[in-house]
Write a structure and sequence with these properties.
heterodimer; A: alpha/beta; 6-stranded mixed β-sheet; 23% strand; B: mainly alpha; 16 helices
């Protein structure tokens, strides 16, 4: 594959998960070696065998998961491995802070060099990563899915920084799968699919729909088709729920919320505002310190997980690899992770593999799970098919309430469409859905009602006309 | 290469373990040569001592019996993600509980006495290792630590009960328990040898354990918790109960090894009865890659090593402890399949390369 990046430009690398964007950039950054082909930099042929080579050339990379030490200050993090010393190995903190302050000011990055990284917001931590790359002399900056954990406002801020960088003559490679961001910030666009460049474009001459088609290889629906909700009886009721995290900090602080049959309630919020702990408390995986969880009028606050699962609660967990699936197990086992010991899947203590396989075949067909056979280990499936396995299991038990946490994270466009339309059809059949997502677009397109969570509190509940992107963005950032 | 034509499971389950064993012998041969003896002579003697005449072969099988039970128990633990180091102690407790029943009852038919004694042995092993399981489930105490501690406790308990007098036989020169009831003895299956019915029990235990792990709901729970305890819990399984149960079953099999050894071989118990079987069995289970069927050949190999070692020492003056080097090397090569794969010119899975790359990134940045 070929890719040419110019100085002073923002070059977006657009593609679905698994299209090979990150791998390509890891080659450029020296973390993975290429099997064939060459890299030219500033007109010279270069061999990059490790990140050190890349850094020497002036290539910097900001990873999706930051590589910072939370306990250290901004200066210490940035200097790490490239310390400025005075005399006999004493670190010259003031000089470093000065350099970093200048860099920040020059690019409008506004980072306090003395702050502890752990105290900064995700958006600011990302800026620290950017300053770190600049401090090491980066003139080409690779940003890998940089907006994944940002609020809309933080994203805007990042775009300003990126524009500032290219104005100063740097080159920015922006890896993403989000069409809107590409349209907003890129000068040039390269679209990848399955390890190949399938097209290039310039934002002013293209449309999101055209880009999506290039990315997926077929026309896609960008909006979920859905009619108005017809909610009936209350299924889930949270009553002043209080939950603590592992460090005993109160992270869910008196949340009250209801979800009715036939509606999708979306919880919008930046990750880490208590959503995970709230869901865990609902599932019985974490104790509620105070308050109640009610399912169809019954108090289930103290019930074990198994009991809840069998009384109509179901969950698509945020981290499907850690909580949703056992990757080494075949598909048919993963489809009965919670019902494995019930009829007809087991006869007393003995599991009935024939029944399990048949059950799997049925669900694989109903949920379009693409696999060779029910015996295939789930770990060998694509992310989209794995999520379909989870969805098939959770919906297969005919639940009253589905908690869907980040249900489309890391999925390709086709699978996102599938998951979204399934959630809507199930809603229309009377399922109560609680959607927890940090992708604001997902919440906006699916939810009939939106509750915004900020620091463990529901700061607003919006419905119908009141659901406004700008307003929710501000609420998510705690600024309203 | 042959390895290219074999299916992946055969490479993992057969070729790599076989090559590991071979590498173990090669390294041991080098060690023998370095110490000034002839490695070919020594290894030939080892082989002769293990196999050549009908009595030697029977002794190899005798030595394999405890390895099979213990190996099955440890393999089952591995499947649940538990590293049970306490098989030696569970062997003792199983022996103690079983032998007490076997010398206390008299005059019942063997068909009743033997199962009773074995059940007592299983129960002893179950309770002893279940304790480690409970400590892990309740307090998060790591089973490696607790089972090692429970080993010492078991040795000292055996010592106290046997040497201390509560279970001491009268009028014997070395401390041991009373002889078990004649009806509780396991019959000899090849006359003129010491090969006893325990071999048949051990071989029968293989499909039973396999079925338990692969085909029952208990086995499903156990494997779920072993692979991904978080997902098991999120799907409503009781991780704690599964840990106690898995650990208990693992110990019950180790306890069976103990009591079968007594019922079939010694007919009484001394406080040295286990003689390291429980520790060797860790290697047996590793070599078997935690597969119950794999335990059979692995246990046979370790039985042969143990049996051939003394003959080798007698014939060639090479220390029988050399066998420990072979065992140790086998464990190292089994535990480090990358070395063996490299020797066999097999490409490591791409996944591993990726992980290495990620680790590099963490250290560099």
């Amino acid at each position: 594959m070929d890719l040419v990046v110019d100085w002073g430009r923002v070059h977006a690398l657009l593609g679905e998960n698994g299209a090979g964007k990150s791998t390509l950039m890891n080659v450029v950054y020296g973390m993975v070696t290429s099997d064939a082909g060459e890299i030219e930099f500033d007109g010279r042929l270069v061999h990059i065998t490790g990140p050190q080579d890349a850094i020497k050339l002036g290539i910097g990379m900001v990873h999706q998961h930051f590589m910072l030490i939370p306990r250290l200050s901004v200066v210490e993090n940035i200097m790490l491995g490239h310390e400025i010393v005075r005399g006999a190995g004493v670190i010259d903190m003031d000089k470093a802070a000065g350099i970093i302050g200048n860099l920040s000011a020059r690019y409008g990055l506004q980072v306090d060099p003395r702050a502890r990284v752990g105290d900064l917001t995700v958006g600011l931590q990302q800026r620290v990563e950017i300053v770190k790359a600049l401090y090491r002399g980066a003139r080409v900056l690779i940003l890998d899915e940089p907006t994944a954990a940002l609020t809309p406002q933080e994203t805007e801020g990042l775009f300003d920084v990126v524009r500032g960088l290219v104005r100063e003559g740097a080159a920015v490679i922006f890896i993403t799968h989000k069409l809107g961001e590409v349209m907003a910030v890129a000068d040039q666009i390269t679209v990848m699919r399955r390890g190949k460049v399938v097209g290039t474009a310039v934002p002013k001459d293209t449309t999101p729909a055209e880009l999506a088609q290039m990315m997926v290889g077929r026309p896609v629906l960008l909006r979920v088709a859905k009619g108005p909700a017809h909610p009936t009886k209350t299924v889930l009721e949270l009553d002043k729920l209080v939950v603590q995290d592992d460090r005993r900090h109160t992270v869910v602080d008196g949340v009250s919320l209801t979800v009715r049959s036939g509606e999708i309630v979306g919880i919008a919020g930046v990750e880490g505002n208590g959503q995970n702990e709230m869901v865990e408390a609902m599932m019985g995986l974490r104790p509620a310190r105070a308050g109640r969880v009610m399912l169809s009028g019954r108090d289930i606050t103290r019930r074990p997980t198994r009991w809840r699962l069998r009384s109509g609660l179901s969950e698509v967990p945020a981290d499907r690899h850690r909580m949703g699936l056992i990757l080494e197990f075949p598909i048919y086992d993963n489809l009965v992770l919670s019902d494995y010991d019930e009829r007809p899947y087991a006869n007393g203590l003995v599991r009935r593999l024939g029944v399990l396989r048949e059950h799997a075949r049925k669900l694989m067909k109903a949920f379009d799970i693409r696999a060779q056979a029910p015996e295939q280990p789930v770990g060998s499936l694509s992310g989209g098919n794995q999520q379909k396995v989870v969805l098939a299991r959770e919906l297969g038990t005919r639940p009253q309430l589905l908690i869907a946490s980040q249900p489309t994270r890391g999925l390709d466009v086709g699978s996102i469409e599938f998951v979204h339309s399934r959630l809507v059809t199930q809603r229309d059949e009377g399922l109560a859905v609680l959607l927890v997502s940090s992708e604001l677009d997902e919440v906006l397109s699916l939810a009939d009602r939106v509750a915004v969570i900020y620091r463990g509190k529901i700061v607003a509940e919006l419905e119908g006309e009141a659901i406004d992107r700008e307003r929710i963005g501000l609420l998510m950032a705690g600024a309203a | 290469m042959i390895s290219r034509r074999l299916p992946p499971w055969a490479v993992n389950a057969v070729l790599v373990p076989l090559a590991s064993v071979l590498c173990g012998f090669v390294v041991a041969g080098v060690v023998i040569a370095v110490t000034g003896s002839d490695p070919f002579q020594a290894l030939t003697a080892l082989f002769q001592g293990a196999f050549t005449n009908h009595e030697a072969f029977a002794e190899t099988l005798v030595a394999s019996i405890p390895y099979i039970f213990l190996g099955l128990g440890l393999a089952l633990g591995f499947k649940a993600g538990l590293f049970n180091i306490g098989a030696e102690g569970q062997f003792y407790i199983g022996g103690l509980a079983g032998v007490f029943v076997a010398y206390s009852i008299h005059g019942l038919p063997g068909l009743i006495e033997i199962p009773l004694a074995i059940l007592a042995g299983m129960l002893g092993g179950f309770v002893w290792s279940g304790l480690a399981g409970a400590l892990k489930a309740r307090f998060g105490a790591h089973e490696v630590i607790t089972t090692i501690m429970l080993n010492y406790t078991a040795f000292l308990l055996a010592n106290y009960l046997i040497d201390g007098g509560l279970m001491l036989a009268k009028n014997v020169s070395t401390p041991r328990t009373p002889e078990i009831d004649a009806n509780a003895q396991l019959p000899i299956i090849i006359p003129g040898t010491r090969l006893h019915f325990g071999l048949i029990l051990a071989v029968l235990a293989v499909p039973v354990v396999w079925f338990l792990i692969e085909r029952t709901t208990i086995g499903f729970q156990l494997r779920s918790v072993g692979f991904n305890p978080t997902a098991a819990r999120a799907n409503g399984m009781s991780v704690g109960r599964t840990l106690v149960l898995s650990m208990g079953i693992s110990g019950a099999l180790a306890g069976t090894a103990g009591i079968v050894q007594i019922l079939g071989l010694s007919h009484h118990m001394t406080d040295t009865v286990a003689a390291g079987y429980g520790f060797d069995a860790i290697a047996v289970a590793l070599l078997a890659r935690s597969n119950p069927w794999g335990v059979l050949p692995a246990a046979f190999l370790f039985g042969a090593l143990r049996n051939g070692a003394s003959f080798m020492q007698l014939e060639t003056q090479v220390s029988a402890d050399l066998v420990s080097i072979v065992q140790a090397m086998v464990i190292i090569f089994v535990a480090a399949p990358i070395i063996v794969r490299w020797l066999l010119r097999l490409r490591a899975q791409p996944v591993q390369e990726l992980q290495l790359a990620e680790r590099d990134e963490a250290t560099v940045v």
